Amino acid sequence: MNEDVYVLGIETSCDETAAAVVKNGREILSNVVASQMESHRRFGGVVPEIASRHHVEQITLVIEEAMQQAGVSFAGLDAVAVTAGPGLVGALLVGVNAAKALAFAHGLPFIGVHHIAGHIYANQLVAEMKFPLLALVVSGGHTELVYMKEHGKFAVIGETRDDAAGEAYDKVARALGLPYPGGPHIDRLAHEGEPVIDLPRAWLEEGSYDFSFSGLKSAVLNALHNAKQRGEEIDPRQMAASFQASVVDVLVTKTVQAAKEYRVRQVLLAGGVAANRGLRAALQDKMKELPDVELVIPPLSLCTDNAAMIAAAGTVLYQQGKWADLALNANPSLPLV
């Protein structure tokens, strides 16, 4: 297509109300995010009912702000894209219905986007995607290795069998008495300590690209409990460093092995845990084994939930003619493939 394509993206899958306008799937014209972190912090995690209420309060303001910053009118848009799943069903419904209303009112194509596809396409806002590629998706609810031969085609070659990496981070952080969300706090402490505590690494059966972090989480909780029983105290910096070393080792090793086996041209890092400094540094170091494979890591603002990534993924679906109708509903368990 020669003409420019402008897509409004809307994201409300969890606890961020976000809207963005993206040009040609690559250029961010606006990317507005209203975070609810302070509201959920006192509960130690996201409360779905509170998240939904906040989305209802914020959605119109956030969309208006995104359109104003972009300097684009609704008549100048080509499509409206929204996260259709997975996520918290009440939260998703707010975004889906707002997007439907806008698409209907302005006669625009309506596009449902998979949340994980959005995280992967956040990388397209940084660099051109080169196929075949491999994406390591690491977030609070997901840990997956996704192989892509072309735009919009996803093959999950590895996924978590129990806790996602981000989930394990939050649970270990809680055990260490760290505030929510725990990931950034563990990452910070890990850089102050040394990985001197022997913790397990779940490699699973040979050749598997699946992940498992439940055993590691249990090992951390047991170590802390046993130390307390003995009247000893474990330095939280050493525990954070040891826990992070175990998680990162498995994630990075399996990613590089898969990149070699599938002979990809590019490796993408995606998801909220992609903001983790330890993971970013270790992946950059390990990827030196594959000098012909490009590593793309998005900036921190595009790792956490945002709507620019939804607009980027939505642009591809728009150009492929994969539009939804107004019967589309939010799906909290929407499969990627």
How many structural domains are formed by the residues?
2
Intertermini distance: 26 Å
Please count the helical segments. 11
| Count of β-strands | 10
Q: What percent strand?
A: 15-25%
Task: Please mark out the parts with pLDDT under 50 across 5 or more consecutive residues, or reply none.
Answer: none
**Helix/strand class:** alpha/beta
- Please state how the strands of the largest beta sheet are arranged side by side: 3-2-1-4-5
State the CATH class of the largest domain.
Alpha Beta
Question: What is the assigned CATH homologous superfamily of the largest domain?
Answer: ATPase, nucleotide binding domain
| Radius of gyration computed on alpha carbons | 20 Å
Instruction: Output mean pLDDT.
Output: 96
CATH-defined architecture of the largest domain: 2-Layer Sandwich
Which sheet architecture does the biggest sheet show?
Answer: 5 strands, mixed
Question: How is the CATH topology of the largest domain named?
Answer: Nucleotidyltransferase, domain 5
Shape: globular
Element-level helix/strand string: EEEHHEHEHEEEHHHHEHEHH
Helix content estimate = 40-55%
Subcellular location: Cytoplasm
Keywords: Acyltransferase, Cytoplasm, Iron, Metal-binding, Transferase, tRNA processing
Pfam families: TsaD (PF00814)
InterPro entries: ATPase_NBD (IPR043129), Gcp-like_dom (IPR000905), KAE1/TsaD (IPR017861), Peptidase_M22_CS (IPR017860), TsaD (IPR022450)
